[in-house]
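Changelog-adjacent note: as of this version, every example in the card shows the full chain rather than a window. The one below runs 103 residues end to end.
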Amino acid sequence: ENMLFTLVLVNGLDSMESLGAGAAQSGMLIGIHKMGTSCGTLLLFAGMRRWPELWRRSKPVFWTGAVFQMVAAAAFCLLGIIASRSSALSKDLIFNLLFVARF
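Full-length structure tokens:
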């Protein structure tokens, strides 16, 4: 999670500027990323409240979270590459997909 946040934090402004956006959209991208983190944490908290022994069977929870992180990071990377190399897709569509990939 920290590695992904560092990637978004360091490259957010440059990425948004390359798409014709500014600091506000970069801040929104960072905020959406952290909101996704908090939603995942809330889900884990709710699961632990409902099933206190969940921590004993944490391997499936861990792998599910890891797979979601890797898929979202790959989608974010792919969208960044597409946005920088192609003008076929609309910038608004790219913005929306980037935000969804980071949530």
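Structural remarks: The chain has four helices and no strands.
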